[in-house]
Amino acid sequence: SNINTVYQKSLTAPVNCDRRYFNTEKVDEEWERLQKAIDWPIPDQEITHLNQSTSPVHSTFSIVGLKESYKVREKISVAITARDHNKNLKRYGGDFFQAKLFSSELKASVYGEVVDHRNGTYSVALLLPWEGQAQVSVRLEHSSEVVQILKKYRESSFPRSHYNGYFEGPGLNKTRVHEVVECNLKWGADGNWRKGDCCCEYKDIKTGTVWQCQRPKKLSCDKLVHHSYGRLESPLNLFEKKLTNVAISGDQKIIHVLPSTAAIGTMEKCRSGMTTPVPAGFYLKDVWKSFVCNTRQFSPAQMGNCLKNKIVYLMGDSTTRQWFEYLERKVPGKYDSIFNVQFKTQYKMLITDLHYISNDIDEIAGGPHAVIVFTFFAHLVFHPITFYVYEVAKIQQSVVALLSRAPETTVIIKSGNTDIFQSDWHMLQLDTVMREMFRDIGVIFLDVWQMTSCHYLRENIHPGPVIIANEVDMLLSHVCPA
């Protein structure tokens, strides 16, 4: 299907959209740029049997021209060859590989960006940022065939994430009636997950976003009290899931890295609008060394001093809540009042406690003491990409308006984590959309994708404490730059 057509329809659908959130003169140009950014190679032939898909067992990698030793800041080149389950070479691209350089002994690692040559071969240029030993690791996240399944389901109108609505009201003989029904987004002309007069609808006036809940049998629509995340409907079967996030075999030789006189890293002050290089940094002895700007480690006392004159607005999902919980544990108690917290969670919560990020930003005065942090990824992976673009566009317009009225406000976007539970490919696509839509707006984009992708801890929707500590240090380095 032509996703541009869906997007254009969404702009004119009165039930879902308000055109004032878009610069309509630039919609075509911006959408074309987004399509180009998230473009992904597709198989050039129809796959009729699973054996024709890419196999993590038979795909391999090798280090090109491996030398006896290297110096810090040099790079090595890694070649990846994809094969199917019959050991045949693949002739087209689209496989989703992830690569890193690591040292278990040094607790060191660095992310490598995989280049798809669209002919079944791939390459990675890996930086050597530390002195000592290192090894290469490559894993197949998804075959190109599985990516096509994910893409197909994402672009279908039927949602793969489901939610619960809790209704409560008076019954007979002074009893209380409780009903739990399924709820979901209403999106696009063909995107209704329920048809006709089946449902209660709840429209947010400012954003135009509409939720539907199945109509309760005994209670009226105005008795909706609580909301929770329900279930995730994966489009992959069990065998396809087993082929996800599997390390492939390859050159396990030890790489010897000698010291270099050239400095590594940067002393540039952290500020808004900085670009994110690849790699964005590296771990050494479990400490993240940023290549973006001069980050540092903060003691609890330094955290308190950094934040004592700030009002920090933390918005998003449970991965942002991890930052809040970490700061709550570390920062002295007298600073507790600095946080204004709003998280979307999978747990049961009051409807009145659910807010839209764009609406909350519209209510913030801003200024040099205001720090706004948000993330908007994990709960959106199986919704249509057009819906995600629509919601991000509203946040974008609210941020632009905020920085216009209060340009000294610090706005920080926390990127998506790698999260194999819901598909790293989906998360990477959303992450790309967010970066493109906030390019050149003057915000700070904290790249935790690379930080979670290359660390030795197993990927988790909620990264481990050592990763959170490094993420918060990076956050504070932007709030209180050295």
CATH class of the largest domain: Alpha Beta
- What's the CATH topology name of the largest domain? Rossmann fold
What share of residues are in beta strands?
A: 25-35%
Largest sheet: 8 strands, mixed
Q: CATH H-level name of the largest domain... which superfamily?
A: SGNH hydrolase
> Mean pLDDT score, rounded?
86
The total beta strand count reads 24
Shape: globular
Which range best describes the helical content: under 10%, 10-25%, 25-40%, 40-55%, 55-70% or over 70%?
Answer: 25-40%
Ranges with pLDDT <50 over ≥5 residues?
Answer: 1-24
Specify the CATH architecture of the largest domain: 3-Layer(aba) Sandwich
Class from helix and strand fractions: alpha+beta
Protein name: NXPE family member 3-like
Family: Belongs to the NXPE family.
Domain NXPE C-terminal: 288-333, 341-480
GO biological process, one term: nervous system development
Task: Write the SSE topology.
Blueprint lengths: L2 H10 L14 H11 L22 E5 L5 E2 L3 E7 L14 E8 L4 E5 L1 E3 L4 E7 L4 E11 L1 H12 L5 E10 L5 E11 L12 E5 L6 E5 L9 E9 L5 H5 L3 E2 L1 E2 L4 E4 L22 E4 L2 E4 L9 H8 L3 E6 L1 H13 L8 E5 L5 E2 L6 H6 L7 E5 L10 H21 L4 E5 L9 H14 L6 E3 L1 H7 L10 H15 L3
Parallel strand pairs: 1-15, 2-16, 19-20, 19-22, 22-23, 23-24
Antiparallel strand pairs: 1-3, 3-7, 4-5, 4-8, 5-17, 6-7, 8-14, 8-16, 9-10, 9-13, 10-12, 11-12, 13-21, 17-18
